[in-house]
Amino acid sequence: MNKAIIGKKVGMTQIFDEAGKVIPVTVIEAGPCVVVQKKTVDKEGYSAVQLGFQDVEERKLTRPEIGHLKKAGVPMKRVLKEFKLENADSLNVGDEVKVDIFAEGEKVDVTGISRGKGYAGVIKRWNARRTPESHGGGPVHRHAGSMGANSNPSRIFKGKIGAGHMGAEQVTVLNLDVVKVDPELNMIAVRGAIPGAKGSIVYIRNTVKKNRVKNTVQTVSTNPQKKSARG
Hints:
Elements: E1 4-16, E2 22-30, E3 33-39, E4 48-55, H1 63-72, E5 77-83, E6 96-97, E7 107-113, E8 118-120, H2 122-126, E9 164-166, E10 170-182, E11 187-191, E12 201-206, H3 227-230
Antiparallel strand pairs: 1-2, 1-12, 2-11, 3-4, 3-6, 4-5, 7-10, 7-12, 8-9, 10-11
């Protein structure tokens, strides 16, 4: 990846573009992040940097975390995250990464922890349908029903949908548009929704998707059956 930063989800709002259209955006407080550790091919076998985000009091950190940050000579940070950046060799411990590395019109991927929804049944969790509700269906219309296991194999295969804990898992939303960047307030607004609740930590990086540029050049066909060829 070319660039990445750690941020905090502020919430959703809307922005009007030049044509007066409403754009739903999520506002993220991104950075400033400080380089806490630099990993090189010679020592660790790969090139990467560890970024720190959000100042925190020393008493709220563990001893290993305090020792790690003091060794780097950087302020105490609450969130640490490693990124394999292409320009990792050009960054040094103590350097700051700010939100201005992104620009309006770019495409980004946002990773966060989705909201936890607690224990959920198969209908809410996996969009399963209800069982028949007539002629002795009983009070089990929203249950999972038979799993279909006979004497062979006498077990439920792994991956079978079932009730359980829903949400609270890592989710990445791809290919979001950067609508606005405010370096003074360390704010970035991206089009659409991102995972997580307000105040949750998110990771922003340049998108891994390849966005093709549409061909706007009009060509004249030589097929006489087409209108463009008949003139």
